[in-house]
């Protein structure tokens, strides 16, 4: 039983659930309800989700394999590789999950008649390996790499389910595509902030392996300010969306119209997300201890979930 629990911790099962739910939400709360010309059947889409999950899980495994040395300093009590699971078994699972993910990815690429889309899955596997081996300790490149992969997990739904048939501006496909791009950008930025904060949290162990992260190169205060700048930038982006909400909600039209994301509850929900970002900025500004950075990292994850959950909420309010 303990080995099973350790395995779920190794592959970050909770994070995998979030990745899967995000893709499911985009498919069944954005694409299927509003578009008639989507490509993937439900079963084909589940294969895409599985491919994503297997490759993401393999990324967590290889990350822990390469992180054994730093984990002995940063989180010895929660370290799994070398304690609950041997390195050899971890490598076996890593290879198996990559083969499963790549195989399913190639299948779905051929299913949408775009075999060169298989390159996406090869890139993800290679990118996760290079991140774990050397990019994680580099100056910002590792942070950007993880953020890009997070955004890609969202964008891939549109890539496989909308783009192969072309995007028709006259039947709503362009609008749905833009919404998906917006959420991919949101995921990119919040992940980038979280990765910088995690570097602050892991500074002690990273110094022992001579890492060159932003936190180590420029120190805690400057890293906090960079994180704050991106937090403010995202807050202003949501403010711009709220300006759009207010403009539509306060306008008078000859006929009653309904626009996705524009109603009283959606406006209140957007204000709630803004308050979360204000709180995030406050916590970043006042943080000093490792426990503070851990809290901020978890807060970023909560903001990500709250942001993604706006999709089914806005769709439900629009259709009912």
Feature tags:
single chain, 320 residues, mainly alpha, 12 helices
Q: How many structural units, i.e. domains?
A: 1
Number of helical segments with 4 or more residues: 12
Inertia-based shape: globular
Q: Give the SSE order as H and E letters.
A: HHHHHHHHHHHH
Stretches with pLDDT under 50, minimum 5 residues: none
**Mean of pLDDT:** 89
Notes on the structure:
The protein has 320 residues and is mainly alpha-helical. It has one domain (2-319). The chain has helices spanning 2-10, 13-34, 42-66, 68-74, 87-111, 118-133, 141-161, 173-201, 203-208, 214-249, 264-286, 290-319. Helix 2 packs antiparallel against helix 3 (42-66). The radius of gyration is 21 Å and the shape is globular. The termini are far apart. The model has no long low-confidence stretch (mean pLDDT 89).
What is the topology?
Blueprint: H1 2-10, H2 13-34, H3 42-66, H4 68-74, H5 87-111, H6 118-133, H7 141-161, H8 173-201, H9 203-208, H10 214-249, H11 264-286, H12 290-319
Helix pairs in contact: 2-3, 2-7, 2-12, 3-5, 3-6, 5-6, 6-7, 7-8, 8-10, 8-12, 10-11, 11-12
């Amino acid at each position: 039983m303990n080995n099973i629990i350790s395995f779920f911790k190794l592959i970050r099962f909770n994070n995998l659930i979030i990745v899967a739910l995000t893709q499911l939400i985009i498919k069944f709360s954005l694409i299927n309800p509003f578009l008639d010309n989507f490509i993937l059947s439900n079963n084909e889409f589940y294969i895409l989700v599985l491919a994503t999950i297997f490759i993401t899980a393999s990324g967590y495994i290889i990350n822990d394999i390469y992180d054994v040395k730093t984990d002995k300093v940063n989180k010895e009590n929660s370290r799994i590789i070398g304690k609950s699971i041997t390195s050899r078994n971890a490598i076996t699972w890593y290879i198996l999950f990559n083969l499963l993910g790549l195989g399913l990815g190639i299948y779905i690429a051929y299913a949408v008649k775009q075999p060169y889309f298989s390159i996406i899955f090869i890139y993800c596997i290679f990118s996760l390996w290079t991140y774990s081996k050397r990019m994680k300790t580099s100056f910002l490149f590792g942070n950007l790499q993880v953020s890009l992969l997070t955004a890609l997990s969202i964008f891939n739904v549109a890539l496989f389910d909308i783009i192969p048939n072309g995007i028709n501006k006259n039947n709503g496909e362009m609008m749905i595509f833009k919404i998906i791009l917006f959420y991919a950008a949101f995921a990119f930025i919040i992940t980038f902030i979280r990765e910088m904060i995690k570097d602050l949290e892991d500074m002690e162990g990273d110094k022992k392996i001579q890492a060159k992260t932003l936190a180590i190169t420029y120190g805690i205060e400057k890293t906090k300010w960079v994180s704050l700048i991106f937090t403010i930038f995202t807050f202003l982006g949501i403010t711009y969306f709220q300006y759009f909400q207010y403009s539509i909600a306060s306008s008078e039209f000859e006929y009653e119209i309904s626009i996705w994301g524009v109603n009283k509850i959606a406006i209140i929900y957007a204000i709630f997300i803004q308050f979360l970002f204000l709180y995030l900025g406050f916590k970043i500004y006042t943080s000093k201890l490792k426990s503070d950075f851990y809290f901020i990292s978890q807060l970023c994850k909560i903001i990500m979930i709250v942001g993604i959950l706006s999709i089914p909420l806005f769709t439900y309010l629009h259709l009912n």
